[in-house]
């Protein structure tokens, strides 16, 4: 087990592409709300902001560059937090479509999924009888037929497209096999050490959210990458805080946010992203961990710097 880092990076995933507006009034989808909640999360202690875009009228998932443009400059002007743009986008888009916003705005970081999978949210549809928008129910119910495509060709296409921008990837691994996919890509020269890995636990179609699986993912990553990686954990739903505390104790970083869980405690919806950040920060500090500032996160992850983004 690796030595715990002196500083723990908190990432906040502000809105994502799983939850829909019916599920929580706190879930931001208008540009001004995404910007406000991102800034508040940074003020609460998030060094990294993981961002998706939404359609401002309907809350539907969007990869429209204008929807990103509506909040990125505001966030950049108001906080020095690292911005990490999703290349996941919608499960039905091609990799070229999903990487287009990152090519336009050249952020310091981007997520990159390391394998294809059955990415399903359809059980969520059983919890609601009425919906704010017509798209929500079919979007969820039809996910039992989705394949989230991230082939080796797709991964290489994204990597080659974004390489000139000096973007650091957050390699999202939803199961242990995707760690081996990343190792293969590194062995063939596609990615260079050190890498940053996000263990994603608790998504239907991926590895389950429990401590044994977290330890297994960490042990496998140690075997494959040695000391040439940093890592974080995303625990979906009720596992969010428990896995975050465990990850910090094991030497990792943490991710919270309304993309991953809509709740602050079991059965109680979170009022905002910042509320989750404040909670995980308090838990970690009570256990003696120090929280990384954005500039400390940049140093830990070897990022290019906020002056090299193109958010205007």
From TrEMBL:
Top-level taxon in the UniProt lineage: Bacteria
Molecular function terms, GO-annotated: 3-keto-5-aminohexanoate cleavage activity; metal ion binding
Presence of the UniProt keyword Metal-binding in the record: yes
Cofactor(s) required, per the database record: Zn(2+)
Key words of the record: Metal-binding, Transferase, Zinc
Name assigned to this protein: Uncharacterized protein (DUF849 family)
Organism: Pigmentiphaga kullae
